[in-house]
Model the fold of this input.
Amino acid sequence: MLKALLIDLDGVIYQAAQPVPGAIQALEWLDSQSIPYLFVTNTTSRPRDAIVARLAEMGIQVKARQILTPVIALANWIHQQDAEPLALFIPGDTRKDLHEFRQVPEDAESGAGTVVVGDLAQGWSFEVLNRAFRLLLSNPECQLVALGMTRYWRTESGLQLDVGPFVKALEYASDRPAQVFGKPAEAFFCQALDILDVRAEETLMIGDDIRGDVGGAQTSGLKGALVKTGKFQKSDLGGDIVPDVVLESFASLPEYWMAQH
Done:
């Protein structure tokens, strides 16, 4: 029987800076039923406290400890590894969550122990991508870390490339596989399960990404629910990944949950 939830944010709880209709009420229902849940997001464009603040502006009150991001998962990993200094290819504000670790200079093309790649959006250029490539090639022991492998996401102006395509370019050029922190990596889901202290088979992941959310969860032993909001497309339902349940939106969760119990 399902006991806990992992919940994506963008495209599930909100989209275009507005709460999905009924999402706030569904979260309030979860709280009233004392159902454990954790928000898991591949967002690397802002630090965790900024995510909390943005949600508050939408009328969604959460605590930082209720959110797991790839950057927070990476920080937990670095504490156990000899991975410094870091070369960060992530937005400036997000660096706040990694301030305790040594970093190479912004113009360095060698000397890194780990190259960290997140969603730079408009910050990508040939020069920036090539500097990441040179850092990797300068040190055979340098690790390539991806903060998620999301292919694209939906912005107010339409679909936009996310971090995954840039990581794939670096993997191909350097002949070095990336260690992924974020969905769909099993280690990321395992960190989330450890935080909630639940087993995979007791947990449902709710997301709008058929591969990163649903496929990643199912590969990690969880059940996966796909919502028809955010980046959802009808073609998602005709591929090789079959969701355990398809919900019209997050607002439909209470009805589904009660039917399962």
Q: What stands out?
A: Helices lie at 23-32, 48-57, 70-78, 126-138, 164-174, 186-196, 210-219, 253-260. The domain at 71-180 is CATH 3.40.50.1000 (Rossmann fold). The longest helix spans residues 126-138. The radius of gyration is 18 Å.
